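Now read the record:
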Amino acid sequence: MTQHDSPSLPAHRPGASRQAPGAPEALDDTGPSRETRPWMPALLYALGFLTVYLLAVCTPWGQRAENALFGLGEQGGEEAWIYPLSGSAYGSTPLPPMELSAKPTVLVGLAVIVVLTLVRRCWRQGCAALGVVILATGGKEVFKSAMPRPDLVGAPENLLDQGFPSGHTVIPAALTLAAVLVVSPRIRPYVATVGVLWLACIAAASATMGGHRPSEVLGATLLACACYGLATWLLPPAAESGATRNPRALPVITLTLALAVALVSGARNDTLTRTLVSAATAFICAALVWYAAVGRPAPTARRTRPALD
């Protein structure tokens, strides 16, 4: 081999660490490229949100199907098992964010996100988490005001209010997705589990007590997931290398518990059909948030081949 025939070397990239031969592989803090954090999930959630709205709210058969649920059983939520925790009963304390506890729940959630951001010094993730909550809750109000519910089937006056998407459901969904952005990767799956169970309870309760239709509950969850997908796409690639894999049994345990919580929270004494529809809707919401938060592989720091001098 002549002096001009040198062995090929790995291509140098800016930011790559220089190490001596034989040293352990380095962690490239630049992280994966934007292709590993695609915009497709945010788009799919947004399209799902619009599809649910168009089918359930803007078609006569969609309105008839959901309005028929209110004719099953007694009017109101007194027959629901979760009624004593809803805040509707005189002197009862509502389960957050039911009834008047909605705004305090959002404020407390935002304060917790700020504290976690300051403690962990994850400034970008903290801003993204705040953006998820503000965009989801604010977007719900804007959509309700801009898109009134059309009356396509001559429904009674009490069924003409625009409730799409559900404000009570969007709060636990948005706060759960925001929390997974700022907590440590090691506890992220467990935080998501707690949030998913909370969401399953609130979503089922909102549907079974008559405060919201199933489409309104599902639309709120899709809106929160779309905001989360947008935030994670706009975030720079994660440079944190401490992420751990989810325990294999955790998804099964979480979704099984979510189904049980949805069934109990959606149960009514007077109608089985409404119970099952409410529970199924809540379970779908829980599954959507679980998949959005931890279902896809979390981005970690990328390993690079050692650069030789």
In short: The longest helix spans residues 123-146. The longest strand covers residues 26-28. The beta strands are 26-28, 302-304.
